[in-house]
Amino acid sequence: MSTLHTISKSPKSQLLSECLPLVNKGDGILFIEDGVYYCANSKVSDDFESDVTWYGLKEDLDARGLKLDDIKTIKIINYQIFVEMCEEFDKVISWF
Amino acid sequence: MSTLHTISKSPKSQLLSECLPLVNKGDGILFIEDGVYYCANSKVSDDFESDVTWYGLKEDLDARGLKLDDIKTIKIINYQIFVEMCEEFDKVISWF
Amino acid sequence: MKFTIVVYAAPYSSQAAATAFNFSKTLLSEGHEIYRLFFFSDGAHNTNKLATVPQGETNLQASWDDLIRDYDLDSAVCVSSAIKRGIVDKQEAERHELSAVSLFESSDIAGLGQLIDAAINSDRLLNFG
Amino acid sequence: MKFTIVVYAAPYSSQAAATAFNFSKTLLSEGHEIYRLFFFSDGAHNTNKLATVPQGETNLQASWDDLIRDYDLDSAVCVSSAIKRGIVDKQEAERHELSAVSLFESSDIAGLGQLIDAAINSDRLLNFG
Amino acid sequence: MNATQKQTFTFISRTAPYGSNRPQLCLDTALAAAVFEQQVNYLFMEDGVYQLLKNQDAEAIHTKTIGRILETLNLYGIESIYVCKESLESRGLLLGDLVIESKLTNANELKTLLNSSDTVINL
Amino acid sequence: MNATQKQTFTFISRTAPYGSNRPQLCLDTALAAAVFEQQVNYLFMEDGVYQLLKNQDAEAIHTKTIGRILETLNLYGIESIYVCKESLESRGLLLGDLVIESKLTNANELKTLLNSSDTVINL
Fold it and tell me: What is the predicted pLDDT for the residue at E119?
């Protein structure tokens, strides 16, 4: 069973470090709302593990002025693809 | 001018480390609500600086089962004294 | 695919309720189904029919109401969350002798069993808070 | 000493509104004065008169209303916060053609100028959120 | 509701008591799941472990004392209770500080637990 | 209100835009203070510095774009704008990334600023 984890608070929340120990190989992590600031700091995103797929919500990135060239390992998806991904993964766990 | 700073979120919020750089000598720091968990961990409270006076709100400590003997450098005050302290300090800054 | 959407957050003070709305609207327009909307805790505030917003801003409560009616969705508000927050239908208003009704007619007061039922009978449950 | 109390938080979902209430009650019983209560953002939800709670629990909205009336306090709700959240007095309800009034009569709809005025004319301003 | 459908619900309670209503929301939902005879796992993690501290008394802040409710969690049909080992240790807490006896669980066991759950409520 | 009473208000905006309404509350209150001709200091600290990022466009999430409003902050009578140096640096941001030119201020200067303020709104 694969899980999509959504993270919706800024890095100050430490939500990613709460979430990561519970992430299984093959899971996805999607940053939404203020969670997209995890994509802003290249120091953070360079550490992203590769046995997890990383996503950022386009609408929230655009709102916050976060440029694509800051972001290396993260796939930018919009709401339509967010919905599709909920189908691809077996369940969704929200971190807020 | 002296300031009373209130901190009302658990240590996970990192509010104390946001607050401390802006604290002047002679200021007070009062933990209320989930802020009182700053008093729970003796590792944290041993580091409290001595040119600031540290307070914890009794009602919130009692509710959470935080025992007095865990707490060394912190004065336990109730709501009445909280009100009095607002008089003693020249202003109050809330961290939440 | 059948989704259940659980909303824990009030509108306006955080983005979560708006995200839940955008997600719900998108999944419906993509041809998926909503088994149930469940408004829990401060999420109950999304179902207050007495809200108005300045011109040019989005009335999120009215947007939910529109979406629920357009797609004939099952929309439930947790009863213990709702009554504490002044969100009452006609029946609750009469029972507690309140002067007015504040809940949109498109949503129903419900117990937590409706959330468990929704989790069991949906393909996916998403929480927004 | 004259205090102004600003409340940003809704009742029940966080402790902040209850803390603001306990602090206000204590300072009044100690003989101090409240220049103004100011309900801002989700704090507006504290002034909703349609709330009821299960027996044995505290109705925080009704507690505020009692305190305001007992001490004849000046209690203001930020207008833009209030109307978005369905907190309306008779005048706002009529203006926006709403079916009901939800604001306690003990509080008044007010602009942010009332918060600045309160800061200037109080000895201490405390924020609870 | 079809009573024959039995699913696995896992509740993760990650927040401290009293400062927010999240511990209560999580608990109420788990109790509802237990009433409907679902398989319920309950996990205390991060600040959530503070809910289990002994000697809580929320009388002074006019609230129900959560610790006292959690003492009797197994009476309500919630028997699979987990406490995250790392969360407890990083807060300088010991099992003896808690109101219930429960399994101390490490991250690897928790991964398996989440993986086998149908629905996860994470508050 | 007695217009002769001029006080010093300091607003600390510590939170990221869009995720919560706190940046907007802080801004609205500061604008009200400026309208009443008070001395207004405005400080961006911690995640608050993200409000000043260039190229924001909140159209897609149906909200006002805060960065665009902040660009013209000085037109509204708020001229003492401070950005916390440490907050900017720890987020890997440069002054050139921001929509306004402002004083980069270190903790010691901020201490003095707070010390000389009559009222501090900290959101």
Answer: 98
DSSP states of E102-118 = -EEE-HHHHHHHHHT-S
Domains of chain F and CATH, by start: 8-122 (3.40.1260.10)
Q: Is D126 on the interface with F (CB under 8 A)?
A: no
**pLDDT digits 0-9 by tens, D76-100:** 999 999 999 999 999 999 999 998 9
Residues 6+ apart with CB under 8 A from E112: none
> At CA F20, angle to CA C4 and CA B24, rounded to 5?
140
Range 20-49 of D in CB contact (< 8 A) with F? 40-41
On the question of pLDDT at B42 being above 90, the answer is no
Whether A41 and A10 have beta carbons less than 8 Å apart is answered as no
Judged by CB atoms closer than 8 Å, whether chains meet at B91 and D124 is answered as: yes
Q: What pLDDT digit, counting tens, does each position of C39-57 carry?
A: 999 999 999 999 999 999 9
CATH code (residue C41): 3.40.1260.10
Interface of F with C in 1-20 (CB under 8 A): 18-20
Residues of D in contact with E18 (CB under 8 A): 15
Token pair for residue C14? 């955080």
Contact A55, A75 (CB under 8 A): yes
What's the mean pLDDT in C66-87?
98
Judge: B33–E53 Cβ closer than 8 Å, yes or no: no
Interface of F with A in 3-22 (CB under 8 A): 16-20
Interface mutation target, options E29, E41, E78, chain C, most CBs of C under 10 Å: E29
Domain extent for D63: 2-128
Other Cβ atoms closer than 10 A to E97: 17
Nearest chain C residue to D93, by CA: C50
Cβ pairs D/F, distance under 8 A: 45
Is the minimum CB–CB distance between C108 and chain E shorter than 8 Å? no
* Residue F92: closest CA among E24, A37, E3, C109: A37
* Tokens coding C21: 């709305």
Smallest CA–CA distance, residue B20 to chain D, in Å, is 19
Which stretches within E6-104 are classed as H helix?
22-35, 66-70, 85-90
Confidence of residue F5 (pLDDT cuts 50, 70, 90): confident
Please determine, for residue F37, whether its predicted confidence score (pLDDT) is greater than 90: yes
Number of domains in chain D: 1
Cα of B1 to nearest chain E Cα, Å: 30
Where do the structural domains in chain B lie, given as residue ranges? 3-95
How is residue E86 written in tokens? 């790392």
- D31 has pLDDT over 60: yes
pLDDT of residue C122: 98
In this structure, CATH architecture of domain A3-95: 3-Layer(aba) Sandwich (3.40)
Residues E74-92: tens digit of each pLDDT? 888 898 999 999 999 999 9
User: Between D15, D26, D127, which is nearest B33 by CB?
Assistant: D15
Q: What is the pLDDT, as a whole number, of residue F2?
A: 52
Number of neighbouring beta carbons within 10 Å of residue F9: 25
What pTM does this model have?
A: 0.97
CA distance F111 to F113: 5
